[in-house]
Design goal:
six-stranded antiparallel sheet, 13% strand, disordered N terminus, disordered C terminus
Length: 724
């Protein structure tokens, strides 16, 4: 990979003289020290919130290992509270207006009852003092046991300490750093990538000519191998120190890998050029360490080729296999090529070995129950024996060990967000909800259907699974330390929101939450997707929590909505669960959450709230957290709404922060018009070959006019990836 000590005699004499005067190894070593210094500065900035988090003893053990725990006895209320009547569920009433009109599906009476007089049913409780006839705002703020909602006042004995994040301290800077350049790339990420690129280019060109002195580029490449390997692992030290999951650092792993491949090729081409001019190319290939360098070059290029998005999304197994084999051969070839490179290789091998050991420790072999949710197009996986060890918002990686997944389906490991709360009082284990979106998830959905059929026939049918995790999550952020929370989920992103809300409800019941208002907004295509989750939502809303909870579901397609609306109109819905047509007005919803957090906190300003151990006393609001999980476009909307909050209101509430749990898929990166065009081509390809269907659509001008001018090579790309 780099001939640091083996400079050929055919290399120009100036190169040898420069190499003797300039210590290449020490120079790239200093480059690595600069990278470590930058990492240390970032860790230093994250220390205040990390320290605040770990002042609570349970946080030292949560989110590390999945295990089985004894369920605590549910919170016992006093007799008066326990016997207080709960408002009965009322039947949902839909207005006779067309659901396509963009209004909500309930009449004004139902909306006012649930929202206490909010505008258009889009923002819950938009004005706390508006509806005087429904009860005074004073009584509503007290939330005593006589309120119709059944909410109670309780003593908060172990409130989590709250520490403002840098996004609350420097909101303008944070807003601009979160602006999206393209899907998956924000201004902040681009700044990090640019700074890293400048450092690598500077190290490669300072007092060095890549054409006459190719040794330098080899040193630079091998010095960055540990960076690439460390960031590729699931359990990496930088992520642990920063409180950031591996999935958020993966973009930097890919970019650093590309720079390493570029440096390797510059290094090799420099020597190949010099040998070709001197006519000694064949002679040098007989030298063992040069042959090892050529092998390293081939491995690096193969890794780069199979790391493209096409292979990652279409043939993930090939991508993984080539990575494992290629990295092993590459590291061995580097050691054979250059002895000074061995320490860098050992660091990379050590990091990878540590990751494999931790992944083995984090893996559980268990029995799982499968349930097919036809309305959602999802498969529900429940692992009863695993009921603790994760935090809200974390995910696990799962392998299904069943012949029903195909010959090699057992070898595939897929990540899914956890949709249940740890130590659930209803004795529910770890729950995953897997959306049917590809070949593997489709096989899993079909397997779940066969499992249900077997159980209906009297056979106990389940699957054995390997669960690895947990990973990711909110890091050092404590959702329960804020005064208000807004969770926005799109489609299958409801798994993240459900886990977060259920966790906050349990902490509220134990008196371990500062939250005064919790708002959940779920955006779906079809209103029928609400039906399977009505029992779960009902259970959440029936809890006697101190915080107010409201759930609103918005559907965006009204094509097949009539039958679903008819079914929903016959089902009992809790009053704080509402259904609306059209997209939500997130700005109004966030404004309402801020109003409630401010009003309910200021109402008790006279009595300071004592935080947990190591915390600080606070008499004002502790901020609002916005959690978003869904497509990249939904995250962009949430960022813009958070950035648009008035500075005065932001300061009044104690800051507004955002946590994103976004999983980008290649099809999300395509223009919507292109996706529609693909769908029409696939429809025509049922009756003819794919290329012929494509040409037919182009001839009819249906496909050509649906492609924007910014995608001129899409037709060629379609032909290249054609399955035929």
């Amino acid at each position: 990979m780099s001939a640091m000590t083996n400079v050929s005699s055919s290399t120009p004499s100036t190169s040898r003289q420069a190499a003797s005067k300039f210590d290449q190894g020490e120079f790239v070593y200093n480059l690595d020290l600069v990278v470590l210094a930058v990492l240390a500065v970032l860790v230093l900035f994250s220390l205040p919130r990390a320290f605040t988090r770990y002042t609570h003893l349970p946080e030292w053990f949560q989110g590390l290992l999945l295990h089985t725990a004894k369920i605590d006895v549910p919170v016992q209320l006093d007799k008066q509270v326990a016997e207080a009547p709960i408002t009965p569920l009322s039947r949902a009433y839909f207005s006779p207006t067309s659901p396509t009109g963009g209004g909500h599906g309930f009449n004004d009476f139902y909306t006012e009852k649930a929202y206490n007089g909010s505008d258009e049913g889009h923002g819950p409780r938009g004005n706390l003092n508006r509806n005087k006839s429904s009860g005074s705002a004073h009584a509503n703020l007290l939330r005593n046991t006589s309120t119709s909602s059944g909410r109670v006042r309780r003593t908060h004995v172990n409130l989590p300490s709250h520490m403002q994040g840098w996004s609350s301290i420097l909101p303008s800077v944070s807003h601009y750093l979160r602006l999206t350049i393209r899907p998956g790339l924000t201004v902040g990420k681009a700044f990090i990538v640019l700074a890293y690129t400048v450092a690598i280019v500077y190290a490669g060109l300072l007092k060095s000519n890549p054409f006459t002195q190719p040794v330098r580029s080899g040193w630079v490449a091998v010095s960055q191998v540990p960076v690439v390997i460390i960031l590729a692992t699931k359990n990496n030290v930088p992520g642990m120190l920063l409180g950031v999951g591996y999935e958020r650092l993966n973009f930097f792993h890919r970019y650093a890998g590309r720079l390493v491949v570029l440096a390797v090729n510059v290094h090799a081409l420099g020597f190949i050029y010099a040998w070709s001019i001197a006519g000694t190319f064949t002679q040098h290939l007989t030298v063992p360490h040069y042959r090892a360098g050529l092998i390293a070059l081939v491995c690096a290029d193969v890794l780069a080729f199979f790391s493209t998005s096409f292979w990652r999304n279409k043939f993930y197994s090939v991508f993984v296999a080539t990575h494992i084999i290629g990295v092993v051969v590459l590291l061995g070839a580097i050691c054979m090529h250059s002895n000074p490179s061995v320490p860098y290789v050992l660091i990379a091998v050590g990091a990878y070995a540590l990751d494999r050991v931790l992944r083995f420790v984090k893996t559980r072999y268990a029995y799982a129950h499968l349930t097919a949710l036809n309305e959602l197009g999802m498969t529900r996986i429940e692992v009863p024996v695993v009921n603790a060890g994760w935090r809200a918002g974390q995910h696990v990686r799962i392998r299904v060990l069943s012949r029903g997944m195909g010959w090699f389906g057992w070898a595939e490991c897929h990540p899914f967000s956890i949709a249940s709360v740890a130590k659930s009082p209803n004795e529910e284990g770890l729950v995953l909800m897997c959306k049917k979106a590809g070949t593997w998830t489709t096989k899993l959905f079909d397997l779940a259907k066969r499992a249900e059929y077997g159980e209906a026939g009297g056979y106990q049918h389940g699957v054995r699974v390997l669960i690895e995790g947990p990973y990711g999550g909110p890091g050092h952020t404590l959702f329960a330390s804020f005064s208000g929370a807004l969770f926005v989920a799109g489609g299958s992103g409801i798994t993240f929101a459900l886990s977060a809300v259920q966790d906050l409800v349990q902490k509220d019941l134990r008196g371990e939450s500062r939250l005064k208002s919790i708002e959940l907004v779920w955006i779906v295509q079809d209103p029928s997707m609400l039906i399977p989750l009505i029992p779960t939502f009902t259970d959440i809303l029936s809890q006697r929590t101190y915080a107010t909870i409201h759930i609103s579901v918005h559907y965006t397609q009204a094509g097949n909505a009539q039958s679903a609306l008819k079914t929903l109109s016959q089902k009992p819905l809790p009053k704080d669960l509402t259904l609306h047509a059209g997209r939500p007005k997130l700005a109004q919803t966030l404004s309402s959450v801020i109003d409630q957090a401010c009003a309910l906190s200021l109402f008790k300003r006279g009595a300071p709230r004592k935080s947990g151990a190591g915390g600080i006393n606070s008499t004002g609001p502790c901020g609002v957290i916005v959690g978003v999980c869904g497509p990249g476009g939904l995250a962009d909307d949430a960022r813009s709404i958070v950035g648009a909050v008035d500075s005065k209101r932001r300061k009044q509430v104690g800051g507004v922060e955002i946590h994103e749990d976004i999983w980008l898929v290649i099809r999300r990166d395509l223009h919507p018009c292109i996706r529609q065009a693909f769908a029409r081509v696939r429809q025509h390809s049922r009756y003819m070959s794919f290329p012929r269907a494509l040409m037919t659509m182009v001839a009819r001008s249906n496909f050509r006019h649906s492609i924007p001018s910014s995608h001129p090579i899409i037709l060629t790309s379609v032909l290249i990836i054609s399955p035929h």
